[in-house]
Each structure stands twice: as C-alpha cells, then as structure tokens.
Amino acid sequence: AQSVTQLDSHVSVSEGTPVLLRCNYSSSYSPSLFWYVQHPNKGLQLLLKYTSAATLVKGINGFEAEFKKSETSFHLTKPSAHMSDAAEYFCVVSGENQGGKLIFGQGTELSVKP
Amino acid sequence: NAGVTQTPKFQVLKTGQSMTLQCAQDMNHEYMSWYRQDPGMGLRLIHYSVGAGITDQGEVPNGYNVSRSTTEDFPLRLLSAAPSQTSVYFCASSRQGGTSGRSYNEQFFGPGTRLTVL
User: Fold this and answer.
1) Cβ–Cβ of A100/B106 closer than 8 Å?
2) Which of A24, A33, A78, B71 makes a 20 to 30 Å CA pair with B79?
3) Given CB atoms, is B57 within the 8 Å cutoff of chain A?
C-alpha cells in the first residue's frame, strides 16, 4: 500500500528566507511523486513532478524537490520565499498497479511574513 | 481551452436530497476523477474513470455514483445527501499513461464545488 506523510501541517517563514516543506512517502514500487499548490479558494496547480528521471526536479516559481530513495523523501524547497507563495501545498504519490490513482498527503499550509 | 469546468460553484442541500455535480473537460483526456477535500485530510479520491464507459471506486465511494458516457463529461451524483458529505469537491482530468499502471501525467483540476448539507 502507498501512503504520503507531510511532516508539518503549518510552516511559517519570513519573506526572503528559504522554504522547506517535508514529505515522506511509502510505496512498494518506484513511485511517481508530485507537488501541487492550492491558493485560497482556488483549485490545485502542479508545481513539479518526479517520474524516475533526474532526482532533482525543478518546478515553477523557483521551487524544486529532490527524490531520495534511501530516505523515502521528496522535500520541497525554495531559496527565497515571496509573499505570493503563501498557500497550501500537497505532496502526492502515484504508484505502480494503481490505475493512475493519486494519493494525497494531508497538506502543509505555508505562511509568509513580511 | 476552458480546461476543467465544474458546476455549480456553491450548493446547499437538505439531508436526504439528491443532486448531481457536473464536470466537463475539453482537453480530450482519458482519465477523470472526483475528489473531496476536508480540512486536515488532503484530497481523497471518490471515483475515477479511465475512459468512456469505464468507472471504478476510489477511497471514499459510499453515497456517490458516477457514470462516463462521453470522454468530456463525468458527473458525480449524491443519492441521498448527508451532513457528512459537506465538503469541497474537485474534479480532475489527465492524459492516460505511465508504466505498470503508474501515472506520471499532470492532473488538471477544476475550481471546485463547495457543498453544504444541512
């Protein structure tokens, strides 16, 4: 069975400081991993995805994530937070033999202070 | 392209009423799915479809029905609404594809329907 755990339900940073949102996954097979962002009262938008190519994945708006199989982690980072980054972030896994289904983490709410 | 559209945006029902949430996409995607979003629980898969005429249950299917008569449309029916179904519902679509049933395609999400059941 697959699962995703986002280690922090809420993260608060100051504008201009680094962002780290942590995600651990559990999968019996090589997974595909995604990060989605949801701004208030909006739908979800894909930030980046890992599908067994390069382990360091670059996404939109300066975000990147590194797939670490030995640690079963897929943490999301950004060197310098912007006020517009305030949103909820979801780590998502799709595993083999799952018919393309996605399993979502519980979400991490990112607050950015001026 | 309009992408994924959902109607209505907001709905209030009384316990026991039935209704259909509409979802349509114009990207010719094979894969469509319905999720519900509740605070602190992320998104949970209700039902999904890998093509016209084919549907399957997700993680929380009870109380919901779906059908897929065309590639474009994937309505979600609440048979007899209950307060536990108060939630925000998202429809999503993507191209089918991956290896060994694993998806590597981006899912495109609609704007959501906020449903309250009294």
Assistant:
1) no
2) B71
3) no
